[in-house]
Design a protein that fits this description.
Elements lengths: L2 H10 L7 E8 L2 H10 L7 E8 L17 E8 L7 H20 L4 E3 L3 E4 L2 E11 L2 E9 L23 H16 L5 H9 L7 E6 L2 E10 L5 E5 L2 E5 L4 E3 L2 H14 L1
Parallel strand pairs: 1-2
Antiparallel strand pairs: 2-3, 3-7, 4-5, 5-6, 6-7, 8-9, 8-12, 9-10, 10-11
Helix pairs in contact: 1-4, 3-4, 3-5
The chain binds biotin.
Biotin (BTN) binds next to helix 2, strand 3, strand 6 and strand 7.
Length: 263
């Protein structure tokens, strides 16, 4: 077992001996690698893979996830949720698990932007890509720990970093531990409560795209299945996919202020 794998095990804690862990120097994408291995029947859940860098890190909506060495945590966890578990619940659980692990490892208090981007000081520090396959679900998590030399490329948009020295293996293990512990009680309302408490969009105006058209709506809540409850000129509805952006810079500033107060 290499040093990273040892710290992953420490983060997981003794109760999770059954989790297989592997740390690699470089992969195309930890999600892709686990999908291949799971489909070929070479691994069983729960399986945690992390890599020092990715050459083809993938984000939601077909985007690239910039994954340079030394500065980020790139991990995927292969899990087997109970049959019939809605994808939205896994999304919510994953976001809460990553928040908890970052809180414990750094003392920072990340905010969740629906669906599951994590922000610190108004910058996106973490993205989550959960992918369903016949054998289970691969939850891929990318956390920007430090700002890469030369900064983030323009395509990374609002990316920022935790800017804390963190033991990557330990953080990966902690994330996996909270995710797997949550999976044991996936229907429990405490998970949704923990998500809502970290998701400051309720009561704010957001922009979203429906049928190719940009619209503005008021966020009224988070539904049991993880959907975003909104209200616009057509009345109330629930968003289940896609993404939202804050309605104006004024709201973005308000959000940053709220975050600063919580730190
Ligand atoms: C997003 O922001 O849209 C989601 C980004 C998810 C990135 C992680 S990094 C580890 C795992 N492997 C990937 O290729 N993607 C996920």
């Amino acid at each position: 077992m290499n040093q990273l794998e040892e710290s992953m095990r420490r983060g997981l804690g003794g109760a999770l001996e059954r989790v297989s862990v592997r740390a690699l120097v470089q992969v195309d994408s930890t999600n892709l690698r686990l999908k291949e291995e799971a489909r070929a029947g070479r691994i069983r859940p729960p399986f945690l893979l992390m890599a020092d860098s990715q050459t083809a890190g993938r984000g939601r909506l077909g985007r690239r996830f910039v994954s340079p060495p030394e500065t980020g945590l790139y991990m995927s966890l292969f899990i087997s949720p109970p049959p019939e578990t809605e994808s939205g619940k896994i999304t919510i659980l994953s976001a809460v698990a990553v928040c908890r692990a970052i809180e414990e490892a750094t003392g920072l208090r990340p905010k969740i932007k629906w669906v599951n981007d994590l922000f610190v000081k108004g910058k996106k520090v973490c993205g989550i890509l959960a992918e369903r396959i016949d054998q289970g679900v691969i939850v891929g998590i990318g956390v920007n720990l430090l700002t890469p030399p030369g900064g983030f490329p323009p395509e990374a948009g609002a990316a920022g970093a935790l800017d804390k020295q963190v033991d990557r293996g330990l953080l990966a293990g902690l994330i996996a531990r909270y995710l797997l512990e949550g999976l044991e009680k996936i229907g429990d309302p405490s998970i949704l409560d923990a998500y809502r408490a970290r998701m400051p969009l309720v009561g704010r105006q957001v922009r979203y795209v429906r049928d190719g058209q940009e619209k503005t709506a008021l966020v009224t809540g988070v539904a049991q299945d993880g959907g975003l409850m909104i209200e616009d000129e057509n009345g109330p509805s629930v968003l289940r996919t896609g993404e939202v952006t804050l309605g104006s810079e004024q709201f973005a500033q308000g959000w940053r202020r709220e975050e600063a107060q919580n730190e």
